[in-house]
Prior knowledge:
Helix content of chain B: over 70%
Number of helices of chain A: 13
Distance between the termini of chain B: 49 Å
Number of domains of chain A: 1
Order of helices and strands of chain B: HHHHHHHHHHHHHHH
Number of helices of chain B: 15
Largest sheet of chain A: none
Largest sheet of chain B: none
CATH architecture of chain A: Orthogonal Bundle
Order of helices and strands of chain A: HHHHHHHHHHHHH
Structural class of chain A: mainly alpha
Number of strands of chain B: 0
Shape of chain B: globular
Structural class of chain B: mainly alpha
Radius of gyration of chain A: 24 Å
Strand content of chain A: under 5%
Oligomer: heterodimer
Largest interface: A-B, 109 and 107 residues
Helix content of chain A: over 70%
Number of strands of chain A: 0
Amino acid sequence: MKNKTKDQCGRRGERIFSNVCILPSFLGVMIFFFVPFCIVIYYSLINNPVLKEFVGIDNYTKLFNNDAFIKAAKNTAFFSLVSVPLAVILSLGLAMLLERNIPGKSIFRTFFLSPLMVPTASVVLVWQVLFHNHGTVNQIVEACGGHSVDWIKSPYGQLVIICMFLWKNLGYNMILFMAALCAIPRDIIEVAELEGAGAWYKFIHIKLRYLSPTILFVLILSMINSFKIFREVYLLTGNYPQDKLYMLQHFMNNTFNSLDYQKLSAAAVLLALLMIVIMAVLLITENIFGKDVES
Amino acid sequence: MRRKLFGLRNKRRMFNGCVLIFILFAALMFLMPTVLTIANSFMTSNEISANYGAMFSNMTEKKKVFISDNVNLKFIPDKVTFDQYKAVLIQNSDYLMKFWNSVILTVPITLFQILVAILASYGFSRYPNRFKSIIFFAYIILMIMPYQVTLVPNFLVADKMNMLDTRKAIILPAIFSPFSIFLLTKVMKRIPVSYVEAAKLDGASELKILTKIYIPLCKGAIVSIAMLVFIDYWNMVEQPIVLMKNNTLHPLSVFLSEINTGDIGLAFAVGTVYMIPTVLMFLYGEDYLIEGITYSGGIKG
């Protein structure tokens, strides 16, 4: 950071003020998230809330032998691994296409953002219309001479959900990329053009380099949103969807409803650990790639 | 030479044309659900059940006769009517009640979350130290967790504080959700230090720097983050179901998802009514949304 030299040695009172500012949020997070999460960790290590006997990693080994958990973890991992990179790549592509001189740019931008306005339940309704067994997509498929598929209930169900995720999130990601593309210094690109750099070279060596912080940012946002798509899946299929759509969130919701806190706590702790690892990796990557273009 | 250039230009024009057609097509696909919801809200309930009734087997036998086997996607109503709106807004006060429930949950969450976030982001962006960055990392982890992970902690706290079945159970944890802190801190870290130094030379206190420099400079970002937070909580479904068994307090978003399976005739009209606040926000704040997090950089900003 640029401001290190002078800012760092601010007067004591000023530094204390900046700490006090964090305090409300810090206390709230402590009370509502951190302390109860410690209790969750404790729950994951005991056999049941009445006897409170310490059982070590028993709950965790049970979890790994649980078919439903394994299935849910596999589905969620597959969904995230496919949809998050797709969301990043496609929205970057869209942003670069819109960067060209085409008429009606701002109208297109509004159109792409419009999914943010639609209530979740209405989205689900529309999706049901589209992908129903006798729905629009099947009518198109049949008109083209194909066989109709019951999309949501078939193995293609995941494809439907990925489409929904992309539809919902591409717009905002695209906005972020468009802003970042605008922020790339013109002169660097012009110099590269004078030197005879091709479009591909400019993309790889200049644009991608300047975009890398935004790519990470969009990656994180998309990850958060990929977990949030459960809402739609839940409304689309209920508590017990078909095998391919059974997500970790279903598993956790259902164990919550059956009051099996031990299993649920162990799953929550595992997921938290996984997130810490992923975020640490992302942060380190950012430190390596993002440094030279920042500030 | 000239000919070649001309060919090149033609090629480029062709390419731009293709791009335009592609983007037009994609943009229409993105807009389609919005248009469909609004357009279908003006249909008569018979027309709606005739077109979409096949999705739900729990229709009454009498109605079933008119229902086509196919689910038809239909944009233009045969007969435009405001009956659905009459049913939603005048004949039955249920929907307006639920709408009010949504407002009374979402507005305090958004306002207070932003307030907490402004203070905290200011704290995080000034005088960074090791301790602060550890807390910030913890916030990022918390932010990225699926709701189901924080569900048990939320439930435990609500239970201990006797808040289950009250609005507080949803509002209080949501106020401290770190999402807006994460976004706003990144923006605040980009504020040039020279502004702050100039203010300090003029004898401004830290509080003045916050209110007179940071908040005005981040106005766009604050508005756009508030919009994102509002939209997110406006559509909440999981929290009320888990934390409030008493469904008279449920927001319309939960109710709307239940209508879909029953009285489909009303679903589009209710959906459109529910869309009004977000549409108004878009009309007012789209520019903020586009420019808002403009200096979005990496995780640390």
